[in-house]
Amino acid sequence: MFKGLGNIAGMMKQFSEMQGKMQEMQEKLGQLRFEGSAGGGMVNVEANGQQKILNCKIDQTLFDSGDKEMIEDLLIAATNQALDKAREGAAEEMAQITGGMNIPGLEDALSKFNPNA
Q1: What are the coiled-coil residue ranges (predicted)?
Q2: Which one-letter DSSP state was computed for residue 89?
Q3: CA 21 to the chain's CA centroid
Q4: Nearest 10 degrees: CA dihedral of 2, 4, 7, 8?
Q5: Alpha-carbon gap, residue 56 to 43, rounded angstroms
Q6: Is the pLDDT confidence value at 50 over 70?
Q7: What single string gives the DSSP state of each residue in 54-83?
Q8: Total Cβ atoms within 10 A of residue 77
Q9: Bridge partners of 38?
Q10: Which helix (H) or strand (E) holds 110?
Q11: What is the pLDDT of residue 106?
């Protein structure tokens, strides 16, 4: 009658361990920094491994040019580059933690995991 309870307890322990690893990974990703740049370095955007934008620097000469559309385009390009690097970095970290195993749904779950919620 209670034969399956050991299995459930084992699964709960594994789930708890996985939650701990996810929390640890999110904290590590929050510390990683990735930079994207555009316009020969005139626009620089910094993101962390959680794909949050942390910093943006725009060279004063771009503002002085008055070319609003160019600034917007360069900002978008630098931001996309920083976020692409952040995604790649997060995938590398995930591969290290999971030992390179492809665990279906893990990447999606980690991207939705918010330790501050």
Answers
A1: 8-35
A2: H
A3: 15
A4: -80
A5: 7
A6: yes
A7: EEEEE-HHHHHHT-HHHHHHHHHHHHHHHH
A8: 16
A9: 43
A10: helix 106-112
A11: 60
CATH entry, 31-111, from 3.20.20.120, 3.30.40.10, 3.30.1310.10, 3.40.30.10: 3.30.1310.10
Classify residue 82 as exposed, middle or buried by CB count within 10 Å of its CB (0-12, 13-18, 19+): buried
Q: Name the β-bridge partners of 43.
A: 38, 58
Grouping H, G, I as helix, E, B as strand and the rest as coil, residue 103 is coil
- What is the 8-class DSSP label of residue 51? S
Asked if residue 50 lies in contact with residue 14, where contact means CB atoms within 8 angstroms, the answer is no
- The share of the chain scoring above pLDDT 70, in percent, equals 78
Beta carbons of 82 and 35 less than 8 angstroms apart? yes
- Residue 79 corresponds to which tokens in the numbers above? 């931001």
Strands 53-58 and 33-38: unpaired
Pair 80, 62: CB distance under 8 Å: no
Which one-letter amino acid corresponds to residue 5?
L
Whether the model pTM is above 0.90 = no
